[in-house]
Amino acid sequence: MDPATGRAPSARAAASRTTAARATARTTSSRTTSGRASSTVRTARAASVRSEGVPQRRAARRAPERRPADRRQRPAAAPAAAYVLPAWLGARTGSPHARQRALLIGVLTILCVFAGRLVYVQAVEGPDLAAEALQGRLVSGELMPRRGDILDAEGTVMATSVTRYDILVDQTLVPDWKRYEDGRLLGQGAEALAEVLAPILDRPVAELAADLVGDRRGKYIARGALPETWNAIKALRVPFLNAEETSERKYPNGNVAGNILGFVNSEGVGSAGVEQSQEGALKGTLGSYLLEQDPRGALIPTGEKERIEAVDGRDVELTIISDLQWKAQDAIEEARRAYGATYGNIVVTDTRTGQVLAFAETSTVDPADLGSTDPSNWGSRAISTVFEPGSTAKVITMAAALETGAWTPTSQFTVPYTYLTENGQTIRDSHVHPDQRLTLAGVFAESSNTGTVMIGEKIPVQVRYDYLSKFGFGQKTGIGLPGESAGILHPVEKWDGRTKWNVLFGQGVAVTALQSNEVFATIANGGVRNTPRIIKGYRAEDGTYEAVKPAETTRVVSEETADTVLAMMETVVSDGTGSKAAVPGYRIAGKTGTAQAPNPLTGTYDHFVASFNGVAPADDPRIAVSVALWADKLLYGGESAAPVFADVTAFALQHLGVEPSGSKATKIPTEW
Known about the structure:
Blueprint: H1 11-29, H2 37-51, H3 56-62, H4 87-90, H5 96-137, E1 138-143, E2 150-151, E3 157-169, E4 178-181, E5 184-188, H6 190-201, H7 205-212, E6 219-225, H8 227-234, E7 241-250, H9 258-261, H10 273-277, H11 279-283, E8 287-292, E9 305-308, E10 315-318, H12 322-339, E11 343-350, E12 356-361, H13 381-384, H14 394-403, E13 412-415, E14 418-420, E15 426-428, E16 436-439, H15 440-446, H16 449-456, H17 461-470, H18 499-502, H19 513-524, E17 528-529, E18 535-539, E19 545-547, E20 554-555, H20 559-575, E21 589-597, E22 607-616, E23 623-631, H21 637-655
Parallel strand pairs: 2-10
Antiparallel strand pairs: 1-8, 2-3, 3-6, 3-7, 4-5, 8-9, 10-18, 11-12, 11-23, 13-16, 14-15, 17-20, 18-19, 21-22, 22-23
Helix pairs in contact: 6-7, 12-21, 14-17, 14-20, 15-20
């Protein structure tokens, strides 16, 4: 119904309104979504009700009801009214270009962030990350040089090194290892690998398999393996089995010169003797390697590689003659047993050069079997144990008396058993005897303490000290072996009223066996003192040989004095206490000695040392030989040490090819 007229609207008017509603709906629908359909239906129904003139609230209540249509005339369906956006929402709509710009800015921002991060990683962090990754693939290690050999003076090998290998496994790669045979899978992991390695390493399978399990990148499964063992393992082509090359020190001559050679510790470092003193020459220079491998341990052929070869150590040639060393060791051991001695040593030197030809001791260590020898015998007591030289030091007194012109070889003395010095000191000889009419040479030949003191009265106290020092007492010889003692020679200011007399016959001072030998070598060398040495030269890997230059020499007494003392020493063997030191066919000069001494093993002062020091041949000296025996009972040098001297000296002269003496000794009167 039309509210203005109260009549129903005409069909034309209704159609006109419908057409307008549809146009409005099309315009509105472009701003709405399909989700608003239900609201559009409700809006259309409301418009239909209003067209009949019914109030809006009543029309709304009746809207759900459906009335039967007139069969004669069906009215046209009301069009769906378009949904109109609320004002507050419609105000936010705008041009799509703004949204596109915002989206573009957002995308560009994200791309810039990623690009910046990429640049940072590549340009800034890239090198560090690459380096870190490379370090994870690099494997480096040391290349061990071969330790030099130690040879005797004639080229005999006395110490050498053989190649050995310590074998390692990367446990983290073991679980993935597979064992195939003829294309068939036989096993995988630790147990399968152990079954292959056990026969090669000579280890039980179960024990070896346990060592293969774990997370260690380098686990030792064998140490000191022979080269053929490592070659067999390499043939398996297991990339995570590797080896470190090591060496094992061998001493082919057993305990011969063991006191000189020394030994190496578990790290292969010299720890005694020549092995220690010549460590710098023997050890060589370490090399190194660097290689790149993949995670499974296989070498990357095109990866990083670097190798610096090791430089092998130099061979050290000694002055020792191994055959003579063996003879001396055998002789002193036999003497120790024969005389019930605690300890003994023999030193043989070349009087012309100072080279040590033999350096023998009892209970010598075998460097390859340290456990079989008491640690106290691992070094050399011949250079570390000191003792009072006794009568052998009378050589120095006689040389000083002649060199200063105080006396001559034929000066005459009436020698008593006891002698009272000017300061009231009583001196006694080793055995009771009536007064003897002896020359200076006779005093020396009879080894008289009282006669020696009478001779020394004309030698000032300071001069006595000076000659002891000139002959090497109180200072190291310079032989270059570890553990050498300088001996004991107190300053004159510390000598008491007794010491100033005792030093004349070898008491109140202390020397090593090498220092004692040096006195006689100096006399045999015409009064010129050489520095004893045990190193003859060095030979490099390329065959280059470097001889050790002799140290500077020192003249101690004149050649005339030395020759006179040497002639006096001959009388000791021909007419005195050293007759058992004689060697058939050779002129021998020497001196016996007997003195109290500390036990060389315990240090207790309850032993005696018996010694003989001599030179051969006396007419053309080549060698100086010293023999000393320590015992807890009184032994005389002429009875125990002299025969050992004769045995070793005869062997040495023959080995060196020294011709027998061609002249007889010139006798110096010993009595008057």
